[in-house]
Amino acid sequence: MLTEFKPNRYGAPGGRFFYNNSNFMVLGAIIEKVSKQDYATYMKDSVFNVAGMTNTAALSKAVYDKIPTNVIGHDKVWRRSVVQNFQDGPLGDKGVYSTVRDLYRFDLALRMDDY
User: Fold this and answer.
1) Quick one: DSSP state of residue 48?
2) Is 39 left (phi over 0), alpha (psi -120 to 50) or beta?
3) 58 by DSSP, 3-state: which?
């Protein structure tokens, strides 16, 4: 992705720190490699279904031309909607769509001793 889309660099090495989620994308790729499943399928089978999260999914632009959701992201000052782009392809750092009820189920599952 970096060579194809050539995103602008945030800063020089050794310079100012900028938070990013790139390591979570790498973790998602590791999950795919180890499980031999795509990230969305792995999460559905191994996390969402186990926790009873029936209204949660990992959705990616790698699968959909337009991610099928009514949820719209916003810029950092919440004034403008953020359009979907190539960065919505990889999963692991984003792309999980859920409900409050399912997040509650996830919290309950994390608190169970046998989860």
Assistant:
1) I
2) alpha
3) strand
